[in-house]
């Protein structure tokens, strides 16, 4: 009876959101506030003792974002479920001490410094590929890869789990297709011709099953290597390659921009709750190069 009650509430909410699309043309759900019942799905997923690997990179001055990122994650990110953070940094001594919640743990990995932020950002794909390949097989069921210049403000839970999960970029969720900033030079492997493309996804958050994210990171890494050999770098770096990947490997679940907003102070009618957001940052202050 209880389950039926929850299902009815769930259905009601699905019908309730008429201001946004809650499904793609290939029938993948798009997760917005009001399209799921948190209590119900927590109850369902609790039966499965799942483990979620979560990767974050903080090199150079980006270590200053770690405290807020980790503390806020511990308030909102998969609370009550198993989470293992893998933190990659060139400055392990600057990693703050943050108290982990029950069943949450953090592993710090040292990586070499790089002097171009673009290389740091793109280099994540290969490190993730190798992490999944070499270590995660028996450790985790799902993985999320997140930017560090961010903060959590609301629930990010099991409603986000799926085989291949992309987050709609907060600047383009209501933009027409011709304004999406895909790579438009045919010389790049990230090229998407005019008239193609469904959504524009952020490179700051993506995830899914180990197998699917391994294939994603491997493919993006290979495509970026081909670009490098041809002396071309996609306009938005690995984000461009991610968008190309998602065009031909459709995500099984999309997260609305509630799951990566631009800045806590920016609003939009469709955004009923900001769960995770980029923090305002001065690029010149934190990046090693322009
Ligand atoms: N990053 C880093 N150190 C740097 C530059 C980038 O650790 O000097 C990592 C960090 O995890 C950051 C991600 O790469 O969140 C992407 O870079 P950034 O956030 O600057 O890109 P944006 O979100 O502004 O496009
Ligand atoms: Mn960022």
Order of helices and strands: HEHEHEEHEEEEHHEEH
Strand order of the largest sheet: 1-9-7-8-5-2-3-4
Question: How is the biggest beta sheet arranged?
Answer: 8 strands, mixed
At the fourth CATH level, what is the homologous superfamily? Spore Coat Polysaccharide Biosynthesis Protein SpsA, Chain A
Determine the mean pLDDT: 95
- State the helical fraction: 25-40%
- Ligand catalogue: uridine-5'-diphosphate, manganese (II) ion
Number of domains: 1
Keywords:
7 helices, transmembrane, 8-stranded mixed sheet, 290 residues, 10 strands, alpha/beta, binds uridine-5'-diphosphate, two-stranded antiparallel sheet, Spore Coat Polysaccharide Biosynthesis Protein SpsA, Chain A, binds manganese (II) ion
Describe the fold and architecture.
- With 290 residues, the protein is an alpha/beta fold.
- The chain has a single domain (2-286), classed as Alpha-Beta Complex (Spore Coat Polysaccharide Biosynthesis Protein SpsA, Chain A).
- The chain is 31% helix and 18% strand.
- The protein contains seven helices and ten strands.
- It has helices spanning 2-16, 38-46, 66-76, 117-136, 210-229, 238-248, 283-286; strands spanning 30-31, 51-58, 82-89, 104-110, 142-146, 150-152, 164-168, 201-209, 253-255, 276-278.
- The chain has an eight-stranded mixed sheet with strand order 1-9-7-8-5-2-3-4. Strands 6-10 form a two-stranded antiparallel ribbon.
- Helix 4 packs across helix 5 and helix 5 (210-229) crosses helix 6 (238-248).
- It is globular.
- 40% of the residues are buried.
């Amino acid at each position: 009876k209880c389950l039926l009650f929850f299902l009815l509430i769930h259905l009601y909410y699905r019908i309730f959101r008429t201001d946004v699309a809650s499904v793609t043309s290939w029938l993948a759900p798009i997760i917005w506030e009001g399209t799921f019942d948190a209590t119900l799905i927590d109850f369902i997923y609790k039966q499965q003792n799942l483990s979620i690997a979560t990767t974050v990179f903080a090199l150079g001055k980006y270590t200053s974002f770690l405290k807020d990122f980790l503390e806020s994650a511990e308030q909102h990110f998969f609370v009550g479920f198993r989470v293992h953070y893998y933190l990659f940094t060139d400055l392990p001594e600057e990693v703050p001490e943050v108290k982990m919640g029950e069943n949450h743990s953090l592993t710090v990995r040292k990586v070499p410094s790089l002097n171009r932020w673009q290389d740091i950002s793109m280099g994540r794909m290969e490190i993730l590929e190798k992490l999944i390949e070499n270590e995660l097989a028996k450790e985790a069921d799902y993985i999320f890869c997140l930017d560090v210049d961010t903060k959590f403000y609301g629930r990010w839970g099991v409603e986000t789990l799926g085989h291949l999960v992309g987050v709609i970029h907060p600047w383009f969720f209501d933009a027409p297709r011709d304004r999406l900033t895909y790579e438009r030079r045919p010389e790049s492997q990230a090229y998407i011709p005019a008239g193609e493309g469904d959504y524009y996804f952020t490179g700051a958050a993506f995830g899914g099953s180990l197998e699917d994210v391994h294939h994603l990171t491997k493919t993006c890494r290979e495509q970026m290597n081909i670009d490098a050999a041809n002396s071309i770098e996609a306009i938005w770096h690995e984000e461009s390659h991610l968008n190309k990947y998602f065009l031909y490997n459709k995500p099984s679940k999309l997260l609305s921009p509630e799951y990566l907003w631009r800045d806590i102070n920016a609003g939009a009618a469709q955004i009923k709750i900001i769960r995770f957001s980029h923090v305002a940052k001065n690029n010149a202050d934190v990046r090693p190069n322009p």
